[in-house]
């Protein structure tokens, strides 16, 4: 039972860090390199497609348990400490704008559909 509780706590911390990254992205003082990495991280975290599919036993969860926290840690290292602290304070009371969340989800879905279309077109239809 403690393993499940530990996973839930880590999941909550991960979600909190995603909120911090979102707020840091909106800050004009955040370096562009951090912003670029934040876009990739949040896009990947919200995307229904993983590098390693989740249905593969054990290995399927590695990208969510190891890869995602590593790139979040890397992005946090690129953000200046004062901006990071300000965003951590704001993240404790931050409420997501549901309309913008749906818009972002739709944009991510369209991007994945276009990627799949171009891959299929290049591999099978371009003869």
From TrEMBL:
<feature type="domain" description="DUF1232">
    <location>
        <begin position="34"/>
        <end position="70"/>
    </location>
</feature>
<feature type="transmembrane region" description="Helical">
    <location>
        <begin position="102"/>
        <end position="124"/>
    </location>
</feature>
<dbReference type="Pfam" id="PF06803">
    <property type="entry name" value="DUF1232"/>
</dbReference>
<feature type="transmembrane region" description="Helical">
    <location>
        <begin position="55"/>
        <end position="76"/>
    </location>
</feature>
<dbReference type="InterPro" id="IPR010652">
    <property type="entry name" value="DUF1232"/>
</dbReference>
<feature type="transmembrane region" description="Helical">
    <location>
        <begin position="32"/>
        <end position="49"/>
    </location>
</feature>
<keyword id="KW-1133">Transmembrane helix</keyword>
<protein>
    <submittedName>
        <fullName>DUF1232 domain-containing protein</fullName>
    </submittedName>
</protein>
<keyword id="KW-0812">Transmembrane</keyword>
<keyword id="KW-0472">Membrane</keyword>
<dbReference type="GO" id="GO:0012505">
    <property type="term" value="C:endomembrane system"/>
</dbReference>
